[in-house]
Design a protein that fits this description.
seven-stranded mixed beta sheet; 213 residues; Rossmann fold
């Protein structure tokens, strides 16, 4: 995944308030907090795997005040706007902002296990061969992923309803994504994935759901 230049951001994010996880960022934060609170899951470390403008990442850090937070972003166009001093929610948060793509980050020696990873609208820009390298590493580094990706059907609806087409995206079916993800993660909600590597049947909060997948 190469870093997008200004034309990508100007074309795909021309109206920021209409973008998912920006205009409706409060809804995402409320959903995440309610979901994990209800299941008694502690979120003390967070990583955003392509933070873009950083809206959701910053809001989640303010909500959880994690002791460790990492954000990666391959695009120099938006990365240069990110400021650690402004983004760090409290002085005690160990915040790292890394200018690199997801595959490169997965090839680093970061051994930390994060409670929550944010991976929204990232996979559609990564080819299959790289996803097969990335996914087993994500399963090692994250207990849970908050995950979204548009499918081919969603892209077709965007084209028909809004005349929007993402020229940079790989259009995959839902079945293709499930086939790639399922060996490493369990779908415990519409947006939340649990790592199969860190799954413990005796302690999981999602045993009833897990048996269905």
């Amino acid at each position: 995944m190469s870093g997008f230049q200004a034309d990508y951001w100007q074309e795909n994010y021309s109206d920021l308030k209409s973008m998912d996880a920006i205009g409706n960022v409060k809804d995402h934060v409320n959903y995440i907090r309610a979901f994990f609170s209800l299941e008694n899951v502690d979120i003390s470390s967070i990583a955003d795997l392509g933070f873009g403008h950083g809206v959701l990442f910053r809001k989640l850090m303010k909500a959880y005040l994690p002791y460790k937070a990492t954000g990666i972003e391959p695009s120099a166009f938006v990365f240069k706007k990110a400021k650690i001093d402004k983004w760090r929610p409290v002085p005690s948060t160990e915040l790292s902002l890394l200018h690199m793509d997801l595959k490169t980050w997965c090839q680093t020696r970061d051994s930390h296990i994060y409670d929550l990873g944010i991976c929204m609208s990232v996979f559609q820009y990564i080819k299959d061969t790289d996803l097969k390298i990335i996914l087993p590493v994500l399963a090692k580094r994250f207990r849970y992923l908050y995950f979204t990706v548009p499918t081919d059907i969603e892209y077709q609806r965007q084209l028909e309803d809004h005349e929007f087409s993402d020229a940079w995206a790989i259009k995959r079916t839902q079945a293709q994504y499930i086939k790639l993800i399922k060996p490493y993660f369990t779908f415990v909600s519409n947006r939340v994935l649990e790592s199969k590597l860190h799954f413990d049947e005796s302690t999981t909060h999602f045993s009833e759901l897990l048996y269905r997948f």
